[in-house]
Amino acid sequence: MLTPRLYLAQRLSALILAPLVIGHVAVMIYAVQDGLSAAEILGRTRGSIGWALFYGLFAAAVAVHAAIGLRVIAHETLGLKGRGLAALTWAIFALLLGLGLRAVWAVTAGGAA
Questions:
Q1: What phi and psi values does residue 70 have, to the nearest 5 degrees?
Q2: Which domain holds residue 9?
């Protein structure tokens, strides 16, 4: 079940994700072709507010987009609806956002992943 508000939220998250995915892939290609090690990559991302914002936005957009998509799948395949469907959607969103932001913290602030 997809309300107009959720439909728009998923489409907006896709619009945000598209350039972020292209940027991420471009950076990964650059890093691999330049022969950077994991330590060198982390040396460039540690303490960077720019990378934290880039990947923080990426993690948030993924959490929104995926949670709504999985909501539709759960409704269509499992027949979930109402509060159960809403609870599942919020749980998936919180899990994905938490894991994503934890990874961002580990790569940019130097926290343990």
A1: -70, -30
A2: 4-108
Closest alpha carbon to 21 in 58, 53, 50: 58
* Domain annotation covers residue 92: yes
pLDDT tens readout for residues 25-58: 999 999 889 898 888 888 889 999 999 999 999 9
Q: DSSP for 31-100?
A: HHHTT--HHHHHHHHTT-HHHHHHHHHHHHHHHHHHHHHHHHHHHHHH---HHHHHHHHHHHHHHHHHHH
Question: Does the residue 15 lie in any domain?
Answer: yes
Which tens digit of pLDDT belongs to each residue from 54-99? 999 999 999 999 999 999 999 999 999 999 999 999 999 999 999 9
Identify whether 113 is part of a domain.
no
Query: Taking the CB of residue 35, how many other CB atoms lie within 10 A of it?
Result: 7
> Tokens 């799948």 correspond to what residue?
73
> Could you tell me the CATH number of the domain that includes residue 66?
1.20.1300
Q: In the numeric block, which tokens belong to residue 61?
A: 């957009």
